[in-house]
Design brief:
elongated; 2 domains; single chain; 40% helix
Length: 250
């Protein structure tokens, strides 16, 4: 292939790849800017919640014998028993083979009911330190765009400037995730950045591989074009040389 034909081919390849990649390159740059501009703790909404360390529990005050009758029906399904706290009260946390958790009042040994809407309201209000009132709580059994953790889960929504939502475990009352408008914007830019338009968490997807390879080829073809378009006289200013008078007139 002659030098001229190779030049023309490289120009066409560079032009079409640039046209295809232009938008995605914009997403990569803008996404990188957003990720570097906002601190990750701010994105996660850490400043809107407070998780207090559990108080000290005197193990000597509680004993397992009081649980024997209550535990009988879970005997074959129990994997662990631990003394814990739930909503500030001492409880026995019993984990079953299927991952479910059952709580027993440490003082009486009676099984506690599953957390309901009223308990979740109290728990969410205890976590939240923002400036908005609790608007609603909802029990979710299907995955949402902004929450991709374990199900089912409780969502507590607050009426503040960031439209904060807290996702709370239905059995343990544990705060699983905090979502704000900033997090939602960040997550959208992250989706565009990694090109995972489904789960938004696969950084090693084929589409990203293909686009990254095409971008690399785009850069290489650009250097090829530079080779053809630069001439020795283009570097005269570096060498301290002035172009001939006839060349300056042109």
């Amino acid at each position: 292939m002659s030098k001229q034909k190779f030049h023309i081919l490289a120009s066409k390849v560079h032009k079409w790849i640039g046209l295809i990649l232009g938008i995605q390159l914009l997403f990569w740059v803008s996404g990188g800017f957003v990720m570097s501009w906002f601190h990750i703790n701010q994105v996660r909404g850490d400043h809107l919640v407070s998780i207090e360390a559990p108080g000290r529990i005197d193990v000597a005050d509680y004993s397992l014998p009081s649980l024997k009758a209550e535990l009988a029906e879970y005997a074959e399904e129990t994997t662990s028993i631990a003394l814990d706290q739930l909503m500030g009260q001492p409880v026995f946390k019993v984990t079953l083979t299927d991952g479910k958790v059952v709580y027993f009042d440490a003082a009486t040994g009676h099984a506690l009911p599953q957390l309901g809407a009223d308990e979740i309201r109290a728990i969410a209000s205890g976590f939240y330190v923002g400036d908005g009132p609790l608007a609603s709580v909802e029990f979710l059994e299907e995955t949402e765009v902004e929450y991709r953790g374990s199900l089912p889960v409780w969502r507590a929504d607050f009426s503040d400037s960031q439209n904060t939502s807290l996702y709370i475990h239905p059995e343990t009352g544990q705060l699983l995730s905090t979502r704000t408008d900033l997090w939602r914007f960040y997550d959208f830019m992250w989706m565009l950045h990694i090109m995972d338009y489904d789960t938004r968490d696969d950084f090693n997807n084929p589409l990203l591989y293909t686009t990254a390879f095409a971008a690399l080829f785009f850069v290489i073809s650009g250097f090829v074009l530079l080779y053809f378009r630069f001439h020795r006289k283009d570097f005269n200013f570096i060498m301290g040389k002035r172009a001939p008078r006839s060349a300056r007139k042109k």
